[in-house]
From TrEMBL:
<dbReference type="GO" id="GO:0006508">
    <property type="term" value="P:proteolysis"/>
</dbReference>
<keyword id="KW-0732">Signal</keyword>
<dbReference type="InterPro" id="IPR005151">
    <property type="entry name" value="Tail-specific_protease"/>
</dbReference>
<dbReference type="GO" id="GO:0030288">
    <property type="term" value="C:outer membrane-bounded periplasmic space"/>
</dbReference>
<protein>
    <recommendedName>
        <fullName>Tail specific protease domain-containing protein</fullName>
    </recommendedName>
</protein>
<dbReference type="GO" id="GO:0004175">
    <property type="term" value="F:endopeptidase activity"/>
</dbReference>
<feature type="signal peptide">
    <location>
        <begin position="1"/>
        <end position="21"/>
    </location>
</feature>
<dbReference type="GO" id="GO:0007165">
    <property type="term" value="P:signal transduction"/>
</dbReference>
<dbReference type="InterPro" id="IPR029045">
    <property type="entry name" value="ClpP/crotonase-like_dom_sf"/>
</dbReference>
<feature type="domain" description="Tail specific protease">
    <location>
        <begin position="89"/>
        <end position="307"/>
    </location>
</feature>
<dbReference type="Pfam" id="PF03572">
    <property type="entry name" value="Peptidase_S41"/>
</dbReference>
<dbReference type="GO" id="GO:0008236">
    <property type="term" value="F:serine-type peptidase activity"/>
</dbReference>
Length: 333
């Protein structure tokens, strides 16, 4: 028995050492996430960091695994005062890189048609993944729709951003290039008041000088000076609002509908050690004039505010499209 005691003591010490190492690793993980927030959050100068660190670490103190810290990290993200930062666990991050159809999801198809053989209608749906093939298909489909509609010599364009709740801005921005009068019309401003614009050039999308992506497809139609109507509602959010802002100030564009949602901020993904993402707000949306859309929930106001006065979807649709058509007709008299 006396011989067993030292072995048992050694075993207990080893277990205790492993447990302490595990706890230290978990604490280090949480602190690393907090450090990313402290260094990059848009409103970092307004946040009581000692309190956030203390409360987050307290919330995570009983965690036995990294996964058990996720609620605490989400709590910290909720303190960033931007209503937009969020957390993506590793399995969600993994799904970002898979194709829509491979996961059983419907691909974000572009709806397009001619209305009364005079008005080109085209939707801009949200695309929310990071898959190369899907991005190229999305942009290629959009260009094909533009080419088909353009060949019919429309009197004007109706671009529908209603219901676009955001996702990945890069493919959406590449898609709308043939409709824009300049390749650099939207960006974000950071906490130090430095403005950075998105730019499109020969299939490449940049953020400032940083290359974000190179697309396979290239648009074959040229910019049109004919009227463009942008349709918005309060579900137009995040990257959808960046699309709307890209058209702000363009002479042939009129935004009609309802104010957008008001998630007018730029997010950046930061990868943690287990593959999870902090999706952190680090900039405020600006348009070509450098107007900042900094008020959460205010959104982008339309040039023509619509009030359908009905909850019937078909009646709302008819009303929106008729106002769009009337606006095009007024501008082409």
């Amino acid at each position: 028995m006396k011989k067993l005691f030292p072995l048992l003591l050694l075993l207990l010490l080893c277990c205790s050492s492993k447990l302490q190492a595990q706890q230290d690793s978990i604490k280090k993980y949480v602190i690393s996430a907090l450090d990313v927030m402290k260094s990059n959050a848009l409103h970092r100068s307004e946040i009581n960091w000692p309190e956030v660190y203390t409360k987050t670490l307290e919330a995570a103190k009983d965690a036995k695994t990294l996964r058990m810290t996720y609620p605490a990290i989400q709590y910290a993200l909720d303190q960033m005062k931007d209503a937009h930062s969020h957390f993506a666990p590793p399995e969600m991050v993994s799904s970002f890189y898979k194709r829509y159809r491979d996961q059983g999801f419907e691909f974000p198809n572009i709806n397009f048609r001619m209305i009364d053989q005079q008005y080109a209608y085209l939707s801009i749906p949200a695309i929310g993944n990071l898959n190369d093939d899907d991005w190229n298909e999305y942009v290629g489909n959009f260009y094909a729709a533009l080419e088909e509609l353009s060949s019919q010599n429309p009197k004007g364009w109706i671009i529908d951003v209603r219901g676009n709740e955001g996702g990945m801005f890069t493919p959406m921005y590449a898609a709308i290039q043939p409709l824009l009068d300049h390749p650099q019309v939207v960006g974000s401003v950071n906490i130090t008041n430095v403005s950075t614009f998105y730019t499109y050039k020969k299939g490449k999308v940049y953020f400032g000088k940083r290359l974000l992506y190179t697309f396979e497809a290239a648009p074959k139609i040229k910019y049109t000076t004919r009227p463009i109507i942008i349709l918005t509602d309060n579900k137009t959010a995040s990257s959808g609002e960046f699309i709307v802002a890209a058209f702000k100030g363009q002479k042939n564009v009129t935004q009609i509908g309802r104010p957008t949602n008001g998630l007018t901020s730029d997010n950046q993904e930061y990868k943690l050690s287990d593959g999870a993402f902090l999706i952190l707000t680090n900039g405020t949306l600006i348009d070509r004039s450098k107007k900042a859309y900094s008020t959460i929930g205010e959104g982008i106001l339309p040039d023509d505010l619509l009030d359908p006065k009905t909850d019937v979807a078909s009646e709302i649709e008819t009303y929106y499209l008729q106002v769009a058509i009337d606006t095009i007709n007024q501008k082409t008299k």
